[in-house]
Amino acid sequence: MLARMTDVEQAEAFRRRRAAAQKWQPKRVHLLLVAPAPPDDPTQYFYYESANSHDPLFDSVGYVLFEEEPSGPKEPYLKLLRRRGVFVIELDPRAPVGEGTQSDPEQWLAMRIDPLQPEHIVTLGREVHAAAAKELERAGLPLVPVVVPFSPRGDRAEFARELRHALVKAGLEKLIKPLAPATKPARPARAKRDD
User: Fold this and answer.
1) Closest Cα partner for 108 from 89, 125, 92, 129?
2) Is the pLDDT of residue 101 over 50?
3) Which of 8, 31, 153, 187 has an alpha carbon 20 to 30 Å from 161's alpha carbon atom?
4) For the whole model, what pTM was predicted?
């Protein structure tokens, strides 16, 4: 278990996550995914580019949209997500999953989403959907009415099935396409055996 971060460390981690996300924000957001909170490991985050920063959400979303789990460098995947107009935010961006949350983060969600002007919004996690659906509908935001279950150690097959269902319901099935061979990150070469 990771040690709890101080307030200063949390604030710095929030600034780093926000800067990383802004770099990969599409000009036009076709699909906005609302996750519960950032990972509790401060070295992992959806928009961090380092190879060791793969988190369960990034891997799960990639598994659906690219029809395979991302491997190798993240930058080519992040470029494709930005090009496809896919963006991820958190219901509670300040508190990592393992920490306490700010009070009623859903009341600020519509205000945070509005400037992004997404065409479609999908919530990830039953708790996120339960907390945010009414606020998003009240604000007239384009919420796809599908509950996509998500937890870091949850059922990947159920997540994939329901996210695909949400994309089809929103008319966004075109976002699901495998990487072209030239786009795939290079895998490490296997060492030759001397027989």
Assistant:
1) 92
2) no
3) 187
4) 0.84
